[in-house]
Amino acid sequence: MPREGYQEQLDGLREDVLYMSEVVLERLRMGLEALAHKDEDLAWEVIEGDDEINQLYLDLESECIDLLALQQPVASDLRFIAASFKIITDLERIADLATNLGDYTLEARHDVYPDVDVQSIGEAVTAMVEDAMAAYDAEDPEACVEIAERDDVIDERCEVASETVVRDLIEREVDDDTDEAEIERLMADVSRLLLTVRDLERVGDHAVNIAARTLYMVENSDELIY
Predict the structure, then answer these.
(1) CATH code of the domain in which 159 resides
(2) What 8-state DSSP symbol labels residue 111?
(3) pTM above the 0.85 mark?
């Protein structure tokens, strides 16, 4: 295939990866909004839309494999294709976590710990994914390192949130007159909240993975890969 056609394929792969990220980010925002407003219709839209994300992933996986097999790229082109392949895997997993938010919305009945600001954490990790994809598009190594540093703050916030929930649960008094169904509802709500915090922390981890693969792509550096 002429070199021009090969370069067009590489450019097309980048555009397709960026498009997938836009769809995934939209679903993540929708999942957070559904959770905030207990919007079951929006939650179902996120859950049912996961098939579209999975198909995008499979299409892009095939695109990467074809480029590797048919073009036999070397050096920077090889790193670009390999990084893109890893990045779409992280995007697909972020979409799965957004689907979890939809599931939690359907299970939620009331807020048990208003002091735990899930939405603020959600906005922070969403911004990390956005910035990681912008770094991929611009091939910006400095942004990659900065995103990894931001993840330390997210980890700390999630740890504090989880500790707040567990501490309150331990200190909560339950007497013999407490209805068993009420206890079960409380435990279900606590479990849901802890899972939500855990999943948002994982979104941040995937943003770091994207930044790490981008740094590898641009500078052939595995500094952030772990």
Answers:
(1) 1.20.58.220
(2) -
(3) yes
